Amino acid sequence: MADSQVLARSKDYWVAPLLFAINFIVYYITAQPLLDDSDVPWHLATGKLLLDTGHVPTTDPWSFASGGQPWYLLSWIWDAILGVVERGFGLFGVLVFVLMVSASLVSMLASHLVTMRVSLSAVFFTTMIGGLCILDFITARPHLAGYALAFIFYRLLYHSRGKNTYGPLLALPPLMLVWANTHGSFIAGFTVIAAYVVEAFVVKDWGWLKRLVFIGLACGLVATINPYGLEVTIGALKTLNGTARGFTIEWLPFTFSSSTGVSTWLVLFILASNLRFAKVPLADKLLAVMWLMATMFIIRNGAIFVLLSAPYLARCMDEATMDIREVRKPSKFVGFMEGRPLWQLWGAAVAAVLVFSAVASKIPHEDKMISETSSAFDAIDYAMEHYPDHKFLCNFNFGGQLIYRTMGKLPFMMDSRAGTVYPEQVIQDYLTFLFLKPGWEGVLKGYGVNGIIMYKTTNFSQTFDSGQFHDHWQLVFAGKAANVYIARP
Predict the structure, then answer these.
(1) What is the pLDDT of residues 292-308, one digit of tens each?
(2) For a Cys staple, 38 with which of 2, 64, 397, 467, CB 3.0–4.6 Å?
(3) Cβ–Cβ under 8 Å, residues 432 and 454
(4) What's the gap between Cα 315 and its chain centre?
(5) Nearest Cα residue to 473 out of 458, 462, 482, 484
(6) Could you tell me if 149 and 175 are in contact, meaning their C-beta atoms sit under 8 angstroms apart?
């Protein structure tokens, strides 16, 4: 490669702030409404709880069916941050915060690809496609922080290669401490370290290997510094091994219908991949393959697969197109961007995002908060006003809305926190009702449930509409998306 080309590529830092602003706007327009995600409302409610009480709860304060089981709140740092943002800037502020974090993921990826010295076209193509492919995973849930930390781990380990000191590796244990108190995906951090340990062993860089092993052990030690100690792994596995996993889309194996973004990335990965001949560090290849396999088993891993395989994929595309790319004089736009100091570019990008957000906040944006087809607020409000003393069974997917709306004032059975809060028997009993298995009415009586709030598309609602269950239940409110049913005396 000519020296002039290397020099030109070293100025491509302007790509990161540009993509930050572009992706923020794209995400605002295309991302799902904030509260449509079943978990986001209870994360917001937990943020309020943490700020009000000043401590991490040990048991669930909201459901009457949790039975005093420990609540493994692995996301308390993230929830507290959401609580602070909502208290200071409202729900719209939470949306802006989440989209800024999401856009920062793409920006970090672009910045890393620039340091890899791949062509500008490969940087743009990889980051823009990758940014669109993770669109399915952009919500206000703590896994967003997990994605960011996974990529930061990767980038620090990448830059530790070829050094004779610990350097950037020293940042990993403090980051793991934050990660283990932010999301259960902290386990992914050890897979990133493991990939570099394997590379260090294969290339026989014994000094690097020793440092990586030591840092890995330090990360394992600090991961136990959390409200649950060594039991943090139990909390992380509660969902993975629980009954609810088989009925939750994000925990199911990958299919091409489960995520358009991951499906697109997988096709691109297959077409451009060159594991045998690509001049890519071994760790990059290992991470790409490991997280491809992890995504095949659990679609939820798709975003980490996209982020951690993107450097490998960018290098493959850069090498594949090297002979057909034309060397052209930079356009006026590129020349202008290369001539600007980085702080000016980032200042302009952040200013553009803030101005866009300010304008958007003045325009009706209710559809960005929650969609009519997902909102059960009208049904919850009706039940709260007319039947505050009843015990309700609500749909798994909007239990978080009930928590957020009533903060425990309306008794309910369970929500989407599943195994991290509820005994397995409670989850199985809920599924007995959901699929209207024989004996479901006796199960509800056993819990004292005398009210039901259900989406209109569920088995119970549709069967009720067909004329069944009228002897024991009555429809008292038909909402836009959910109905309220009360047990007859």
Answers:
(1) 999 999 999 999 999 99
(2) 397
(3) no
(4) 26
(5) 484
(6) yes
- The contacts of residue 42 (CB under 8 Å, 6+ apart) are 399, 400, 403, 404, 415, 416, 417
Q: In terms of DSSP bridges, do strands 482-487 and 451-455 run parallel, antiparallel, or are they unpaired?
A: antiparallel
With contact defined as beta carbons under 8 Å apart, do 126 and 310 qualify?
yes
Unique residue bearing structure tokens 């690097």? 208
Domain ranges of the chain: 3-30+72-338, 377-487
Asked if residue 332 lies in contact with residue 292, where contact means CB atoms within 8 angstroms, the answer is: no
Task: For 37, list phi and psi in degrees, rounded to 5.
Answer: -70, 130
Selected residue with higher pLDDT from 189 and 327: 189
Residue pLDDT, tens place only, 155-185: 999 999 989 999 999 999 999 999 999 999 9
DSSP-assigned beta bridge partners for residue 392:
412, 451
Alpha carbon of 478 to those of 36, 73, 183, 457, 461: distances in Å? 20, 34, 37, 12, 10
Amino acid at 12: D
CB 180 within 8 A of CB 223: yes
- How many other CB atoms are found less than 10 A from the CB of residue 242? 18
Q: In angstroms, rounded to a whole number, what is the distance separating the alpha carbons of residues 332 and 89? A: 39
> Which candidate, 312, 315, 296, 292, places its Cα nearest to that of 304?
292
Is the pLDDT at 248 greater than 80? The verdict is no
Among 258-262, 281-285, 349-353, 409-413, where is mean pLDDT lowest?
258-262
Kindly state the percentage of the chain with pLDDT values over 70: 95
What is the distance between the alpha carbons of residues 108 and 315, in angstroms, rounded to a whole number?
Answer: 16
Q: Are 179 and 186 within 8 A, CB to CB? A: yes
Cα–chain-centroid distance for residue 322?
35
The highest-confidence range among 32-46, 253-267, 415-429, by mean pLDDT, is 32-46
> Measured between alpha carbons, how far is residue 240 from residues 58, 63, 235, 451 in Å?
21, 22, 9, 30
Q: What is the pLDDT of residue 2?
A: 36
Read off the pTM.
0.93
